[in-house]
Amino acid sequence: MKKLIAGNWKMNGSMENARALIANIINRLETDEDVLKKCDILVCPPFLHIPAVRHAIYGFPELRFGAQDCSAYENGAHTGDVSASMLRDSSCSYVIVGHSERRQYQGESDATVAQKAAQALKNDMVPIICVGETEEEREKGLAQEIVDAQLAGSIPALEPFHDIVVIAYEPVWAIGTGKTASVDDVAEMHGFIREQLDGKVPAPEKVRILYGGSMKPENAGELLSTENVDGGLIGGASLSAESFLAIARAAG
Ligand code: 13P
After folding, report:
1. Residue 161's pLDDT is what?
2. Closest CA to 98 of 144, 49, 126, 132
3. What is the DSSP string of the chain?
4. What DSSP assignment string belongs to 96-151?
5. How far is CA 153 from the centre of its chain?
6. Is the predicted pLDDT of residue 163 greater than 90, yes or no?
7. What is the position in ligand 1's atom list of the atom closest to the CA of 10?
8. Which of 61, 65, 133, 215 shows its CA 20 to 30 Å from the CA of 3?
9. CATH class in words for 3-249
10. Do strands 63-67 and 3-8 pair parallel, antiparallel, or not at all (unpaired)?
11. In the chain, pLDDT over 70 holds for what percent of residues?
12. Residue 170 annotated as catalytic
């Protein structure tokens, strides 16, 4: 399975930064085409920077872009929300849903995440459904139980043709902290997720399971060569073209 290397830019940078970052990524890819043979590359800028990224990527369709969230609703009186169809109109092909920062700060439930993922699929985009336990939950030995419940609640009812959801395992305690899960823990959790997908998605073997949480060039090779790790969801290190593409290069 070709790896997916996804950058979650979160709420960072100005329009100028976004333009510079995407231009830098494109420049580097133009001189290092092998990277795109090894993996699919995706960037998820803040909503307002999507049009600038779309403009820059025009003519470079191998590079994909998406959003960091979408509304759980189709349209209507949802002040401040952005619908999946609006994102599709802007040529997004992926949407991150259920990121732990949204679950934590916006109080998003599994049911809401499932509605968002369903909206993404309905609008021909691939949802990247995020799951992951907190440090306290891991210490209590509850990591698998928590992730299992999140998977059960956050994956919407899928049609047989919906074989392209992506799952991102992001242990909350590893996000932005510099701490990464050990390769053994990642292997165990990713294997567990693959098993749990049975019965929840039409083709579990086709689902890409990404690891996220302080992934950087120094640890990417080891993490990305772990069984059932089909790519990475990268925060901090995706804000520099150099480190983002160094991670992508490690996917080979
Ligand atoms: P960091 O790579 O900054 O730890 O963030 C991971 C993440 O939350 C990606 O969605």
Report:
1. 67
2. 132
3. --EEEEEE-TT---HHHHHHHHHHHHHHHHH-THHHHHEEEEEE--GGGHHHHHHHHTT-TTEEEEES---SSSSSS-TT---HHHHHHTT--EEEES-HHHHHHS---HHHHHHHHHHHHHTT-EEEEEE---HHHHHTT-HHHHHHHHHHHHSPP--TT----EEEE--GGGTTTS----HHHHHHHHHHHHHHHBTTBS-GGG-EEEEESS--HHHHHHHHTSTT--EEEESGGGGSHHHHHHHHHTT-
4. EES-HHHHHHS---HHHHHHHHHHHHHTT-EEEEEE---HHHHHTT-HHHHHHHHH
5. 18
6. no
7. 10
8. 133
9. alpha beta
10. unpaired
11. 98
12. yes
Rounded to the nearest angstrom, the distance between the alpha carbon of 76 and the centre of ligand 1 is 32
In the chain, the amino acid numbered 179 is K
Amino acid at 159: E
| Annotation says 242 is catalytic | no
| pTM for the model | 0.97
Give the residue-averaged pLDDT of 127-135: 97
242 neighbors 220 (Cβ within 8 angstroms): no
175 lines ligand 1 (CB under 6 A): yes
Q: What residue spans define the domains of the chain?
A: 3-249
Report the pLDDT averaged over residues 64-93.
98
> 221: phi > 0 → left, psi -120 to 50 → alpha, else beta; which?
alpha
180 vs 15, 137, 153, 173, CA distance in Å?
30, 16, 26, 8
Q: Which atom of ligand 1 is nearest to the CA of 214?
A: 4
Is 252 a pocket residue for ligand 1 (Cβ < 6 Å)? no
Q: Is the pLDDT of residue 155 over 90?
A: yes
In the block, tokens 């998977």 appear at: 151
Whether the CB-CB separation of 41 and 35 falls below 8 Å is answered with: yes
CA distances from 26 to 8, 39, 163, 238 (A): 17, 15, 29, 14
